[in-house]
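Slide 14.
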Amino acid sequence: MIEEMDLRTFIIIDSMQPQYAAITGTVVKGDIALAGMCQLYIELAPGSAVYELLNVALKQANAKPGFQIVEREYGELELHSFMPEELKQAGQAILSACGKTISDRRKPRIVSEQIISNVDPYQAQLINRDNRYGSIVVPGETLFILEVEPAAYISIAVNEAEKSSMTKIITFDPVGRYGRMYISGTESEVRNARETVIEVLESIEGRE
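Slide 15: predicted structure.
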């Protein structure tokens, strides 16, 4: 059992959407996830605990690993499968190995959010130059930017935004102090996505 572990994020995505899965596939270093798969995302401290916990999960379930990341403050691991039960089994194996339950995870906190209407062509170009993955912002579109803590919760936010609206994923980053997402589209679609994302994040239970 790993003692004194901070379970920051534990989230299962029920069905990876096409854009979300495609962008995820460009950054994973392990098995590539595909649209329609379910996904388990875990963020924890100390970061090096991901090695032992991923080893436990892989030996007890047939889920495939996309990555194991150890950064300055936290560690993250990702597993995916077309079989929800396999993913749940992997998740339970991880929780048991560290003596935690899902209620021990942290509740997501929205750090900041903003909607930028009618994006100026010059600003669109600056955003697109900084974006290595995903779509591009077209001048005149509406842009929604969201930051959450812990960072890995941005994964379910992006996926739910795509599921609920006709928006484009410009980019998202689930690693670091804060998770960030950028989506664009028409004003109405972006605002619809925003409402869904806020509702989903606020519904996730956990400790403050």
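Speaker note: The first helix runs from residue 18 to 27.
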